[in-house]
Amino acid sequence: METVAAYLMVTFLAGMAAVLMRLPALIGFLAAGFILNAMAVEQLPLLDEAADLGVTLLLFGVGLKFDVRSLLAREVWLTASIHMIVFTVMAGGGLALIGLLSVGLLADLDLATCALLGFALSFSSTVFVLKTLEEHSDARSFYGRIAIGILIFQDIAAVAFLTVGKGSVPSPWALLLIALIPGAIVVRRIWDMVPHGEMQTVFGIMIALVPGYLAFESVHIKGDLGALAVGVLLAGHRSASELGLAALGLLPLKVVGFVWLLYWQKLRRRTAVLGGLVLGNYSEFGLIVVAIGAEAGMVDDQWLVAMSVAVAGSFVLSSVLNRANRYALNSARERMSPHPPDKVHPHERPIEVGDARAVVLGMGPVGRAAYRELRDGYGIPVLGVESDAARVQSLKQQLFHVVDADATDTDFWDRLQLTGRIEIAVLAMPLHATNLEVLRKLRDSDFNGVVATVVQYEDQQSEMHELGVDAAVQVYQGVGVTLAERAAEAVSERN
User: Fold this and answer.
1) Cα(145)–Cα(235) distance, integer angstroms
2) What residue ranges do the domains of the chain occupy?
3) How far apart are CA 333 and CA 218, in angstroms?
4) What is the CA radius of gyration of the chain?
5) Tens digit of each residue's pLDDT (9 = 90 or more) over 228-280
6) Could you tell me which CATH number the domain at 46-335 has?
7) pTM of the full structure
8) Residue 71, Cβ density class (10 Å: 0-12 exposed, 13-18 middle, ≥19 buried)
């Protein structure tokens, strides 16, 4: 029990220290691992298994949120493949050149070792990127979807390397994994019958581990890939040291590479810069690659420690850069010319509002209710704005006038051709911080119409009124009013 207490105390204190320094708690947790190791604290039983379980469930969750068609988009597979090849060559070459200076571990590196290290450094951290995207509510934005697609492409490449590196050839029985495709249909139907709450959680873990992890491991394929694959098949379900210093010096090259490749494919400057920044870190998969290389005798065991320092340092730098992304965006605006409107990526071309007189930003349950009330109750033409592509397609099939866009995107307001017609803007996104950010963007666009927003708490309601919002309604307050109206209507009908 003393060991458990030590783990919890160090982890909590390190996490709080990171938060106080305006860094993600994840960085503090990583630092806690270094501290506990330096303190020679006894390793907890089943710690490795718990770590493997965490990664497996993370990849399963990524798969659930991922549209496999996104992986086939040119801006995903072409960017990921070119960047991986070019960065591996340039990083490996850079380390080889530094090795000529005979500095510590970098002395007398052979080309095979440099290539392995360059390959390991080419990966971006799935955990860190997802946490960063969630923190900014950008997981379903356009640049967020591109970043996740690139991560999955990298994960597939990593799993392929690990399979070859361990010398384990997939079993002929691996062909039977094709049965997972029709099997997913059956699983979806069973999932529909699972009650909400704890049973949903247990069911999800079981699916990730049994047909996912264990099925793939049994045919000598990395189980993590199985969890990811099963998640993708079920996606859409309604319920889903010297090297350290050298590697950190290569981070700008990694960021610039992603930015240039995305910009080259006609994505806007903001999308290219944010995509490059969020992917500008080193991955836990890189540690695994180096570990495999150490087992095979390709690199010295000391490289594992050096690589750990590089990964941890990249998390800190990437966190700082992503928090200061406005400076990078301003710099990009000055140094990168915009694409002609007719040449820009189709997803990022100007948005026409048509005859709409109201715009609803965020088409979740609250946004849809506001849309219907404005359209059906008051006869006002409405435009809905939503960053979830799957939800946009579903709403269009229901005859909603809605566009796939990110309202927190600075350039969104340039793309949105706001005219004097727009009289009402409804901020219906689930996070208060996101609504605040969109409100600032709305004010910066010189919009002078009526602004209404949804909030959760009274202090948020007061804050919105102080910022000049015309109407701020608490979610539960609105539900209560509607519930009372419906009850009164039901009584009238009975009488």
Assistant:
1) 14
2) 1-45, 46-335, 350-494
3) 51
4) 25
5) 777 777 765 555 545 555 555 677 778 888 888 888 888 888 888 888 888 88
6) 1.20.1530.20
7) 0.64
8) middle
